Fold these 4 entries.
Entry 1:
Amino acid sequence: MSDRSEIIRLGITLGDPAGIGPEIVLKALHQIDLNTCCQITLFGDSAAIGAAETQTGLECPDTVDFFSPDILHETPMMGQINAVCGQSAWASLRLAIDAVMHNKVDALVTGPIHKESFRAGGASDLDHTTMLKRITKADEATTVFILDNLRIFFLTRHLPLRAVADSITSELLEAGIRQCLAHLHQMGVKDALLAVAALNPHGGDGGLIGNEDDTIIKPVIKSLQRQGLYVTGPVPADSVFHLAREGRFDGVLSLYHDQGHIAIKTLDFHRTVALTLGLPFLRTSVDHGTAFDIAGRNMADASGMVEAIYAAERLAHLFC
């Protein structure tokens, strides 16, 4: 799709039926303008959306198409790890992936899953991203969090903290920087300047607090700078995200999961959107989980799902 005037077709998965996914999806559909925003198809069990209608007092709009894997045969027990709910979540995601791969929808927006339920339900993958990457045979899948002008990428994701330093090699870092710059360009940011967050406090203080910043990160950045790439760092993590928020950098490469997650979620937990780039299509998601503690109580804030839908509608044409 190259004509921006065309209506974007979005596929939305409900996520784990025992979590807040169905609730926030239903609420979001009542907060966006379906007449001008996009064409939406939902993927999830009909029992899940029925439970959300009961919880919220809202009805699923008639203009929304719906595809159910028909895994659930009754209303799920909310807020609990459940293998059947996990099976429903991955079966719904599989339906959605098939739809986008066969050009039935242009981009995906995914509701939150619970990893334990996902695995208990028979999924061979740990999470959305690994499943999407495997099925689409993508060479790489890059996660970026966006909030207004703040864009945070991740070099590593679900690793124990003690394994992070050993995992950061010159080869991995160089490939990560190149991917980030390519994705910033793809997102429409020209001549983007990428900042690499430091691994150690104060960037290691000249080796006094770890030497990885001096021995691995700096040499890679200097080499890429000599090649004409717009990258800088390592910038201490206690300031790099603030500086990017002020406009000093167009993106930040976070070296591990919590380094970037804490920064952006503290800034605005509800409006942060996760993008998965490197797939044959765009995927956006809320940046939070299933919130089992409030599931089924009509307490969930849907603003993150609203932002994820608008982000997908705004950016999908760049990836179609």
Entry 2:
Amino acid sequence: MAEQAEKLDFKRVFPLFVIVLVDLLGLTIIIPLLPLYAASFGADPFMIGLVNTVYPLMTFLAAPILGSLSDRIGRRPVLIVSQIGTFAGFILLAVANSLPLLFLSRMIDGLSGGNIVAAQAAISDVTTPKTRSQGLGLIGAAFGLGFTIGPVIAGVSLALTDNNYHVPALIAAGFSLASILLSAFWLRETHHPDEQRAQQAAPRVPTLTRVARAFANPATGILLVLMFSQQLIFGGYENLLALFNLQRLGLNAGGNAFLFAFIGVILVIVQGGLIGKLTARFGERRLIYAGLALLAISGLMIAVTPSQPVPWYSRAEMTGELTAARSAPTGSEVVSVELPADENLGWAGILWLTVAMIPMSVGASILSPSINSLLTKRAAAQAGGILGISSSLTSAANAITPAVGGSLFQFVGAASPFLIGGAFLGLLFAIALVRLHDPPDAPPTMPYAA
């Protein structure tokens, strides 16, 4: 029995893995092209940052409520409702013909952004403390597969449709619809009815009070600080990478899609096959140290990427692609993002950036699952509530960093978000070495449920 408890119950985790993967395919299809989609409507780097802010800002408001709601009524209904919102957001994105509609589509998707929170809470239901990192790592592996397959689908669909940005959004909506059907007809509820009744009988605690208590508790506070702080920087990496690649290397949406696929391969290898072994050998705390250090190194490497457009780059063709992506005339063909000149073409820039993606991908693969694993261990039965707070903080960071990063990108320089981010992550690494200790023997008693 003890040996059985040491092993992950893959039969119970597999449906969640498949559902999250299908759901994430929709998201990862649009990630590489969203900044360029906004640029096609004349958005400058600051406005592109605001486009990337809307989704996490809405998720920040909704995630704690949805996470606690999943503790009270179950994971499955929350997951299905949030997936329906995602589907509606993708449909609107597919028909968007202006920047305001682009904003609205991301707002709708963000307000229903409880997909991952509910899935993570369900994983915590069907795993033991010893297998939780591995279970949450499989959610990360789904991210990795999504980042591998989704951008390839985006790149191929763009190539086949002469860079029609609306087609990938329609495909994303199709995957989102498939995830709704899988959740409705395949997924079984993982949250025990007795636990739901206990949460329903518990006194309701205001959201801000729950967040304050989670931060005040030494068992969870430092982990939440690390989650928010690292995502404040890593979110900038994610949101600005495609724009950085466009300006420094001349990579279009298709080129960025395949670079994201490379990142996804590494995520799959680490989170799908290695995270359980690494956790068993080193523990979550040491993996958090390693993740912070690797992300710091990657940010600094990206910042010094040689400014050399790829050999196949053409400024005229890139301008034409961004202009043609508009589904309605705007009265102007001016692209607000600075494009590189047709000079000094070569391989140095793309090769350097590809190498820099390796520590970034490995660091991201081990950091978030390790933090969330420790959080669920310390929050015990209130895993949904604490994961909702964690997800909300991640969304808050993601809401802040695109606007700040976009401003730095536009007014200081393309490399500045990565240079500053790498230095800040190095500081976080030092803080974690001093402040992050092994988890206490007993879980905290402060309530995180609504």
Entry 3:
Amino acid sequence: MLTRKEKIYEGKAKILYKTNDPMYLIQYFKDDATAFNAKKKGTIVNKGILNNQMSSFIFQFLEKNGVKTHFKEKLNDREMAVRALKIFPVEVVVRNCVAGSLAKRLGLEEGMALQQPILEFFYKSDPLDDPMISETAPVALGWMTQKEVEYVNQEVWKVNKLMTQFFDERGIDLIDYKLEFGKDAQGNIFLADEISPDGCRLWEKGTGEKLDKDRFRRDLGKVEESYEKVCRLICGTL
């Protein structure tokens, strides 16, 4: 049985704790909400509980379909046990439809269909507003090897195929989302972080209603209700 020990990291939405087993950490989900790299702050009631439940469900789905994730088990409402990893300082963003910063950068209308998904790399740095980098930058800067970049790319396309179908079957369009990866002490790479409305743009099929953190970013209201709705659609229950 894992025992929670000292805190080793606190981010905008989660806290990581050491455990009595050096191979695993405890990941705690907070209700804190941030946007625009923490320039906007607030609280989404029970967000941590919902995101933990949704992430646990999706990680298990991905594991069953051949994707290696850091997820070990859901411990309670707000905590999951995860593998201890060294996280790459890179966010991979997959875009299945035009929205958010892509629409702004290119002057395109949100909701515009793409001929194929777009994959983008960003450097994880709040002070620098997570700048976009080229796919060759992680190797050039010594953050990842070429083989690691190639493996991540391969896993991202596998994840996207699984996730778009997963959400489609639940009446949700997966517009875009971010993924993070890390490696264990043996160099094995795993999908990490979380998968929830915090890091995914999710639009209700047919209506286009936003069911994700854009409701907080853009002051659209009904934030808690939207997270609860996604949780029901994903997990079948709260």
Entry 4:
Amino acid sequence: MNMGVNLAGISLKNPILTASGTFGSGEEYAQLMDLNKLGGVITKGVANVPWEGNPTPRIAEVYGGMLNAIGLQNPGIDVFVERDIPFLAKYDTRIVVNVCGRSESDYVEVAERLADQPVDLLEINISCPNVKEGGIAYGQNPHAAAEITKAIKAVAKQPVIMKLSPNVTDIAEMARAVEAAGADAVSLINTITGMKIDVRKRRFALANRTGGLSGPAIHPIAVRMVYEAAQAVRIPIVGLGGVMCAEDALELILAGATAVSVGTANFTNPRITEEITDGIREYMLEEGVEDIRELIGAVR
């Protein structure tokens, strides 16, 4: 039985990845689970310089998930190269670096710095709803998304995955735009912009006022958008959004995803990625599926 997939020319032992921002670079989780069992680790967003992120409070629990307005806090590329890449390189799993920036030059600088590093893929975050500059500005405009894709592809040595925002009118249009600009894959969906108000204090629950909604509440939207993107492009898709169990991951695969990222569920169960991988294997055995590639986009 084969669980391996090919993501933009990079082979994964199985389709399960960790979603950026929910797993750090894996060091804490490695104490509780075996990173070798994952198809790959997608790191927290990495910028060209350290980012402090947004003011607190930055997280609020809501029905069916959570809101976050972390603002892509990270220590910057220097610390990442010195500390996190050597740690991940010890494991038999693919390293996918999530790249963030406030301007085109920020993104390009990080891609250039990573060109000679032992990482397998770059995931370019143009869809964070909690960063005023850059980020979502690229993710909501097809032309801007295409331009940033071209700029990164001109310097990147690894395959480039463009992470798309669900906060758009037509996800297929965005997917086609970055594919035409040279993207090797797309990942979707990032969080959906939401808001929570504390009725007792009569104030916003988040200092940023709005935050990104993640968790099971957004899963049906993710399935729909992965399907729409899969009908629009030929490049591989990494599906994510509210994946809490193997069945959720299989939905995204059947909709057209080659790989699946698991995010918010990591906060409630640090071993969830292992359990989802095992659950997919059990499903394949029960259904007589010899190769997981038979399932990718099987629902038309």
